[in-house]
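The following record pairs a protein chain with its ligand, zinc ion.
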Amino acid sequence: MGILIKNGTLITENGKINADILIEENKIAKISENIQNDNHQVLDVLGKYILPGLIDMHVHFRDSGIPDGFEYKEDWLTGSKAAAAGGVTSAIDMPNTKPPTTTKERLDRKREAAKKSIVNYGFYIAATPENYNELASAKNYAGIKVFMGSSTGNLLITDSHTLEKIFQTAKNLNKPVLIHAEDEELLNQFAKEAKEKGTQNPKHSTDVRKPIAEHKAIENAIELAKKTKCILHILHVSTKESVELIRKAKKSGMKQLSAETCPHYLFLTEDFQQKQGNFGKMNPPLRQKEDVEALWAGLKDGTLDIISTDHAPHLKEEKEKLYWEAPSGVPGIQTMLPLLLHAVDENKISLEDIARLVAAAPARLLKIKGKGEIKEGMDADLVLVDLEREREILDEEMLSKCKWSPYSGMKIKGWPLTTIANGKVIYDNGKVYEVPAKELVFGD
Ligand code: DOR
Ligand code: ZN
């Protein structure tokens, strides 16, 4: 039996449409006013909005499919349940699992593990100085991740000759390069200086992972992308100057450059870390108020193309360690949409912006087939939202294995009510339905 959604307001990146949606099998079969159909389950959603199911193109679901890795922090089932509750219907996983996804064989192991996922899934492969053949022979992956500075795991490329070879390989394979932009040499220097001063517990990570490390890496990557003409995506942009560097590069005519920021850089500042310690530690770190403002401005004028969560769960007990031992990263996939809907209420962003930034734009960048828009013939990935609903974010409602949220206690106006993936309800009003999803298909 299909589903008939009646009386909703559909959101596309170009505007709102009042129409019904007929879902048959896993597809949007028809969009029109007043659809009549007796043999479908009817959802009357008068007064509610329907967004395209969100595509989170940057998650760390931790589960490599090979035992004794980081799956104690998250796995495909728990990560995808949190996604479903947050209106996310597709998630693309980063390769810094244990072991890291650097070969075709490891990618296939992860692919097997991801069959547990209740949201659609895809993967990146990490570049190493040696894995060119693996990048060429692996099938159906979203892009090539490069860590220019170290973070969780031990993936790292610092030498610019190797970087250029990777960018060139990506160009030849027509795959985007996704960079973690922090300059390793500077990061090491700042950490050494802080440790020599005996700094046990930096109040702000931004004092040891300074903005200049991010800027230097972005500049290098932009230069190499210009030279090799590869598609370059800059992950988790956090500073005002980074926005400016990207704005300039785009103005200079770089067509294949894109960038994202993440909810924590939009809704938190370094003060959060001062109060909450390592629960506010992530890479790159939280910055200052003027950076937050510049990021919102960058989203508005199109300098920043995408919002993704960088959902990076770590257990509470790991976060309670001393600064230098605690892992970096915060969970965020269940809370991104509530936060963005709250921002709609505060007139910082529109529903159409959300449809563009977290669905249409990632689908375009990664050439994801059948996703990212509410349109006849597309896969029926939808999220129904209530802009009037007000409630707090609560740790105990988090479905991620780590069971905490940096936004806990925040009062939010605007919540997802129902999430549909491939034509099936996977989340409704607090209840998750474990329906297996599908692997995303990335075009060439
Ligand atoms: O804070 C972060 N956490 N930044 C990263 O680059 C990686 C991520 C993780 O995997 O924990
Ligand atoms: Zn990440």
